[in-house]
Amino acid sequence: MKKNIFLSLLFVFFLAFSAFSQTEEEQVEAVIKSLFDGMRTKNAEQVAAAFSPEAIMQTIAAKPEGNTVASNSATDFAKRIGATPAETQLDERILDYQIKVDGAMASAWTPYRFYLNGNFSHCGVNSFQLVKMADGWKIVYIIDTRRKEPCEE
Predict the structure, then answer these.
(1) DSSP secondary structure code for residue 150 in this structure
(2) In the record, which residues are listed under signal peptide (predicted)?
(3) FRET partner for 145 with CA separation of 20 to 30 A, picked from 10, 17, 54, 57?
(4) Residue pLDDT, tens place only, 77-111
């Protein structure tokens, strides 16, 4: 019994030490991964937890008459993800993480490919701005591009 308690405490200590030993870049990457994991599982709470309450989302859309920018709140985005029909599969696959950190501010550049119901939909790049708050890194701004080609592999 004492051995089990000791092993349990040792395991908890190891997990806590691992969490604290993550670099700032790894912590930022974990927030972004959590966002897309939440999107895949349609977990609105997990998606919302990645953002600050005032976060802004924008998408650059290429149009024949010129580029336009569409804006959205992260709160509305999380609600829409949670309301996605069960049979709809959303899968944004991040191809690379280029993360820069300066104190409490971080920037991440993440090329991606997006799949809807297992079929390629579009590709582009996300540009995240994050701030380290009392409860950890939070996304305060994201802008992305969307296109059919050319796409990274």
Answers:
(1) S
(2) 1-21
(3) 54
(4) 999 999 999 999 999 999 999 999 999 999 999 99
